[in-house]
Amino acid sequence: MIRNIGGTVRLTHVVSALTAGTAASVVLFGSAIDTQAAQTQNLTLNAFVPQTCSIALTAPTGTNAATFGANSATFTTSPGSGTATLTFGVATLTEICNKKYSITISATNGSTLKGTAGNTDVLPYSVVYDASGANTTITPSVAGVQAATSLAKTNGSGVAKQIQVVLANSFVQADTYTDTLTLTQTVP
Amino acid sequence: MQDLGSSARLAHILTALTATTAATVVLLAAPEPAHAAGSATVTLAASLPSNCSISLSAPASGATFTSGGGNNTARWTVSSSTGTTTVGITTLNETCNQRYDVTIASSNGATLLGSAGNTDKLTYSLVYDAGGANTTFTPSAGGTLVGNNLTKTPGGGRNKAINLILQNAFVTADTYTDTLTITQTAP
């Protein structure tokens, strides 16, 4: 019997044995199936979550809520009623963002409601941002005033904030007085 | 005697056998039998080493797959913040000439983590052999056995799609990461 040895050497050894003798018993066999180290592959998973931020305006809630439609808030004042100021809810601002953000508000007429052509009366006003929360009062400029900075990430459905205007009550000419607010959400 | 090529070697053996006056050639793996004088018995058995490997390539659809220097990466953009999203992350090719197992481990325990300071996270499960065995599981840090005692493959191996089922959430804008380790073991 020829013992099991390495592959090439084994066969050579067999042949030698066969040629050397007339009576030879030759057994060729290999070792058991070789074991092999475990094979591994690494895969890094990268899930990219993009910035998702938006704002939307809807009708205001609470007392003295303006009639809201198509991002237009209409309210009726009572001029010269004796109170110094009149407060109206003009919109609900819903803010959504998955990172920190800021809100800026600007006014086309610089916080002044102006009448129709030929009417020189004006109604100055200020804006209250997040009336039932931070309750921040600002006087929006044409360039814009920051109402909130570095606000925290919201939840998926966003955060609703009430926007109000506070009018300086004065006895002005009957007319429709107008200004346009621009609310801007910025993400650093 | 010098070493010969395998075919030549066997021919050489047989030539040697036929040259004897009474030669018997038996191919078997039994213990050595008793022999008559002048006879020879040859038992042949081939040694076939274990030949097993796995490799990763791009999925049929889904994540952007890159590979280089032994590092594989699957990257995709999360486009929803609710429900679940299924993403193809890779194609696993398994080659093995014997039975084998496949285990998948996750460094973060089936959780995608954001960059430092971001405590948000995204959880997921995996589907091994999507479209085939379709085995859904949650990989643990210690590893989860997903293919047990699998049969020998063809020479070109078997391709299996690996999908990820992401539990969407409204999380901070960031890149969320985990590392999978796929291991093939042949007992």
Structure description:
The complex is a heterodimer of chains A (188) and B (187). Chain A is mainly β and 188 residues long. The model of chain A is unreliable at 1-32 (pLDDT under 50). In chain A, a hairpin with a 6-residue loop joins strand 9 (122-129) and strand 10 (136-138). The N and C termini of chain A lie far apart (83 Å). In chain A, the strands form 3 sheets. In chain A, strands 3, 6, 8, 9, 10 and 12 form a 6-stranded antiparallel sheet that branches. Helix content of chain A is 7%, strand content 45%. Chain A is built from 1 helix and 13 strands. The longest helix of chain A has 14 residues, at 7-20. Chain B is built from 1 helix and 12 strands; from the N terminus they run H-E-E-E-E-E-E-E-E-E-E-E-E. Residues 1-30 of chain B have low confidence and may be disordered. Chain B is mainly beta. Chain B is elongated. At the A-B interface, helix 1, strand 1 and strand 2 of A face helix 1, strand 1, strand 2, strand 4 and strand 5 of B. Strand 1 of chain A pairs parallel with strand 1 (40-43) of chain B.
Give short descriptive properties of this protein.
heterodimer, A: 188 residues, mainly beta, 6-stranded antiparallel β-sheet, 3-stranded antiparallel β-sheet, disordered N terminus, B: 187 residues, 1 helix, 47% strand
Q: How confident is the prediction overall: mean pLDDT of chain A?
A: 83
What gross morphology of chain A would you assign? elongated
- Compute the number of helices of chain A: 1
Order of helices and strands of chain A: HEEEEEEEEEEEEE
Helix-strand category of chain B = mainly beta
Which range best describes the helical content of chain A: under 10%, 10-25%, 25-40%, 40-55%, 55-70% or over 70%? under 10%
Main beta-sheet strand count, sense and barrel state of chain B: 6 strands, antiparallel
Low-confidence stretches of chain B at least 5 residues in length (pLDDT < 50)? 1-30
Assembly category: heterodimer
Main interface: chain pair and counts: A-B, 45 and 74 residues
**What is the ordering of alpha helices and beta strands of chain B?**
HEEEEEEEEEEEE
Number of helices in the DSSP assignment of chain B: 1
CA-to-CA gap between the ends of chain B? 38 Å
Q: How many beta-strand segments of chain A?
A: 13
Q: What is the radius of gyration of chain A?
A: 41 Å
Query: Which structural class best describes the helix and strand composition of chain A?
Result: mainly beta
Low-confidence stretches of chain A: 1-32
Based on CA atoms alone, the radius of gyration of chain B comes out at 26 Å
Q: Per the principal axes of the C-alpha atoms, what is the gross shape of chain B?
A: elongated
Q: How does the major sheet of chain A shape up?
A: 6 strands, antiparallel
